[in-house]
Amino acid sequence: MVKNKVLLLGATGETGGDILNGLVEDGSFDVACLVRPSSASSAAVQELSTRGHNIVVVDLKGSFEKLVEAVRGYDTIISAIGAPDQTQQLELVDAAAAAGTKRFVPCAFMTVCPPGGIIGSRDDKESVYQRIWYHHLPYTIIDIGFWHQASVPRLASGRIDSKLIVARNEIYADGNVKSMLSDKRDIGRWVARIVQDERTINKKVFAHSEFLSQNDIVRIVEEKSGEKLELTHLSTTELKARREKAWADYVADPTSISKRLLRSIDDYNVSKYIRQDDTPENAKYLGYLDARELYPDVKTIGFAEFMDDFLADKIKRPYEGKHIGLMKPTQK
């Protein structure tokens, strides 16, 4: 069997690592990893090489001719570049178009949301999508909801503090609005199916593991942990006001990682829980295909099953060892 030749940008990151695992597990792909020169000698990149992946080192902002040659010959390019670096994909899109890439998968992999000032990072991604459309480059945009791993509230006992990304136990409005969630372990499996499917060429696709409200999450966590959660309730007005302040703080200091994170958190909260953007119904309204309908055989990991694994210490904390703003450093 001839394997689909994939060039993956961001394989050492969280989403990129999930995608790589899914492609390898599927077995239908020959995956090379695109890395920037500043990362080429890192331990994470060396590990990719040890696992048998070809490492393609190229500067996205360097020689355009070298970039075109680096990406030539790959059937599919998948980008999982970091959130602050979205516009660095523009040169990669130009190179992919020049090289005749058969499918370009830009770094979407977020909640479903239209552009236009709702979520800042969504607007950064839109500029990449528009560059793809400018070139008539074949593409697939994949969104996956919000991670299970980023949706766990804090327990009063503190016994899971070292595994939390953001320790905010907040309920917005009445807590009944549902949004789409994905276990990180499902992301790569979805991507592997989607990028092999001719039906998804020049389409947007949404995939998710479960569709839950904040109250649903609280109920599951309390049942699984045996603890009563300590919660803070914010009204729609309070959440919107805090988001406005977070944006003002970020604009005043755009280089601050913590201020960018605070802005992003409330962008997502307003989009998901107030505007109700991240729903299957809205995704279809925006023109997305539903991965669950395309691939009904795919078995996903629900939030209750995830919590069993989480409480049994079977889940690796995202961004392990990193301390970014509200993220707690891993305790050893």
UniProtKB/TrEMBL annotation:
UniProt-listed SUPFAM superfamilies: NAD(P)-binding Rossmann-fold domains (SSF51735)
Pfam families, alphabetized: NmrA
Domain of life: Eukaryota
All residue ranges annotated as the NmrA-like domain in the record: 3-240
InterPro entries per the UniProt record, alphabetical: NAD(P)-bd_dom_sf, NmrA-like, NmrA-type/Isoflavone_red_sf
PANTHER family: ISOFLAVONE REDUCTASE HOMOLOG P3-RELATED (PTHR43349:SF93), PINORESINOL REDUCTASE-RELATED (PTHR43349)
Name this polypeptide is given: Isoflavone reductase family protein
Species lineage: Eukaryota, Fungi, Dikarya, Ascomycota, Pezizomycotina
